[in-house]
Amino acid sequence: MKPYVILCAAETIDGKIASKTGFSKLSCLQDLKRLHTLRANVDAVLVGANTIINDNPLLTVRLINGRNPIRIVIDELLRIPLNANVIIDRSAKTIIVTSNKASKEKISKIHSMDVEVLIMGESINLKNLMEKLYEREIRKILLEGGGILNWHMLYHKLVDELHITITPYILGGDNAISLVRGEGFSSLNDCIKAKLIDYKICSCGREVVLIYKVMY
User: Which residue of 11, 34, 175, 199 has the fewest C-beta atoms within 10 A of its own C-beta?
Assistant: First the structure.
């Protein structure tokens, strides 16, 4: 058994979630409120190490009234800094998921800051991780990952739903970050399919929200 996973992201018309310099603040205020509403209605938020290193988010519920989800960070080499918001902020629980490759000294330091470090062996098996999280009664997860984590979660058939906001911008750039990166598929025969189940025009009048069910 695994949690129900919703991938949520704002992207440009050309499919970028961040520019070549890492700029990623694409959403309007109404879309951010939608994101915080989703956070308030899941058990955990899942991100990768690069999201923490580049954006240093709090991953809490602030724009609406609601409870904070558990923050889960995938960080196989334990690269995130000790002063990251998800470590020093006490308003929500944080679980850092890492491997035996991580520095034992850094693991001890993070433990001393009352943050849980979950060691998954020589590498992080996402399917096994989802099973462990389900055993902890985490039933619904919001995936706010970058292109690499999104790819791995989709490739291993761990994402159930997509909430994609199309913003009215074109960033371009070979080094800009796409919604999904990784190895990729070669054709429509082997790619992941999705069924559009809802859509709405944002009240700002400039963005469109698309909701898909992922079909495996």
Answer: 175
